[in-house]
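Quick one, C-alpha cells below. Sequence please?
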C-alpha cells in the first residue's frame, strides 16, 4: 500500500540526539495519522556512527523501517531516502533536529494546493546552540519576496516536505568533503528555484535545531 507521506529521518553522526529526533518524528506521524493520512516512518542510517545506531536501535519496535547505506554525504543520502520512500510525499528530517508534532499534516495541507511545484518548510526555526535564536524564513507567496536574495545566502534549510516527484525531478547535489555546513541546502534551494518550484511555509510549525547553518540568512 502506498503511503500518503513518507517521513524519512536521515541519521549520520548525531549520537543520542538522534533518539530524541526519532520520537519527534513518531509523534508527528501519529498526529498525521489522526488527521487521516497514511504515514510511513523510515530511518536512514547513512554511514551512521555507533552512538547514532545505538540511539536508533528501537526504531523498528515503533514501526519504523530501517534503511542502511555506507555513504555519509548528505546529498547522496537524501537522494537514496527519496528513492526508498513509498509515499506520495516525502518529508526529509535531520536526526540532529526536532520537528513539531503538527509538522507532517500541516505541511501536507499546504503542499496539496499545488503539489507539483511546492516545497514546504516550518514557519519558525529555533536554534539553541551558542545562545538562542529564532529564525523566520520567508514564504515565496509573500509579495515582498525577492528571489535575488538567494544569491546572497540561503533562506530555507533541509527540513522539507514535497511530493516525491518534486524530489526526483530536482535531486540533491552531491558535494565534496570540503563543503561547509549549509552549502548543500543552499545549492538545492538554487536548483529548485531554477526549476520553477515555490517554497512555502506551514503555519504554526516549528523546527528545533542545535545550530544555524552558515548559509542560512
Amino acid at each position: 500500500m502506498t503511503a500518503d507521506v513518507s517521513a524519512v529521518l536521515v541519521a549520520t553522526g548525531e549520537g543520542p540526539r538522534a533518539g530524541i529526533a526519532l520520537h519527534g518524528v513518531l509523534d508527528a506521524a501519529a498526529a498525521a495519522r489522526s488527521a487521516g493520512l497514511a504515514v510511513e516512518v523510515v530511518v536512514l542510517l547513512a554511514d551512521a556512527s555507533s552512538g547514532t545506531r545505538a540511539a536508533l536501535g528501537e526504531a523498528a519496535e515503533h514501526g519504523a523501517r530501517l534503511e542502511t547505506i555506507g555513504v555519509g554525504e548528505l546529498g547522496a543520502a537524501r537522494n537514496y531516502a527519496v528513492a526508498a520512500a513509498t509515499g506520495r510525499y516525502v518529508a526529509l528530517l535531520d536526526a540532529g533536529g526536532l520537528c513539531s508534532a503538527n509538522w507532517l499534516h500541516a505541511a501536507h495541507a499546504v503542499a496539496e494546493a499545488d503539489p507539483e511545484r511546492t516545497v514546504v518548510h516550518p514557519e519558525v526555526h529555533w536554534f539553541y546552540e551558542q545562545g538562542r535564536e529564532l529564525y523566520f524564513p520567508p514564504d515565496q507567496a509573500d509579495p515582498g519576496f525577492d528571489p535575488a536574495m538567494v544569491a546572497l545566502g540561503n533562506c530555507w534549510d533541509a527540513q522539507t516536505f514535497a511530493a516525491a516527484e518534486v524530489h526526483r525531478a530536482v535531486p540533491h547535489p552531491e558535494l565534496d568533503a570540503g563543503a561547509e555546513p549549509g552549502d548543500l541546502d543552499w545549492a538545492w534551494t538554487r536548483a529548485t528555484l531554477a526549476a520553477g518550484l515555490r517554497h512555502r511555509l506551514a503555519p504554526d510549525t516549528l523546527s528545533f535545531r542545535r545550530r544555524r547553518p552558515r548559509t542560512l540568512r
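The mean pLDDT is 92. Strands lie at 5-11, 39-46, 65-69, 89-94, 97-99, 118-127, 133-135, 160-163, 198-209.
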